[in-house]
Amino acid sequence: MRKNALVLNLPSSVWPFFLWPCLLAGLVLLGACSEEDDTPPPPPQTATGPVAPNTPQAPPGQVMVTVVANSTPAGATVVGGGRQLGTTPLQTQVPIPAPVAGQVQTFAFNFELAGYQPATINAAPVNNTITITAALAPATAPQEVATPDEDEDGDDEDDANEIRVAGRGGGAIFDRHTTRGAAVVGQSCTIDRLRVRLRGNHTFNRDLRITLTDPQGRTYTLQNSSTRNPFRTYTVRRAAGREARGQWNLAIADTLDQDSGRLTGWNMSLRCR
Predict the structure, then answer these.
(1) CATH topology of domain 148-272
(2) For position 141, what pLDDT does the model report?
(3) What is the dihedral of CA 82, 83, 85, 91, to 10 degrees?
């Protein structure tokens, strides 16, 4: 059975007043929804201004200095304080002993570039900065060192029946480092006389200890912290009677700081019995 619906048949003039409370409630709800803030949140704030650099710390008793190195031409390897600093142009920081009042500190830097003669520059820090520039000269053919040493007859020329063996290796000589070379004798020979010729340079001869080891492991000291020029000809008398065949090893140890140089070549001459 259909229920009768309640129908209000009101004059049109009555509607606004009758619906006024409902209309107000609807407007309030609509305003609440429309006033919702849909603005995106501001981005997180980041720190402004320069970031503190990661400055290396000096070991106890030392201070950090800046080294600025250049060369002509560029691209030279720079060695200083017994370590390789990089290639020119470069700027880096290195530790040095803390300065003592009244004493001037000077440090040696070695520049090397293929096809050019090595160069060594000594410099002192100014306002905690060492600035150095090297003008590298083109390499020239090495010259034989003609100064005889321990050679009884004073003759540095090889005999016709001597065996001459070229040494390999060499290169930079720098602080607390051993520069090595090797020479191989390919034939049997009981040594009657052995001479060793070294070519190169170094800024302080007393830094160097030079040894030669034969194929059987016996070591001969050629120079040990002497003031004499180490790049000369040595006659190794104690090698007489030894077998020459095999590999001979040369070692040049730089035992002190702040000086450097280079072994540019070496060879051995053997006269057999």
Answers:
(1) Jelly Rolls (2.60.120)
(2) 44
(3) -60
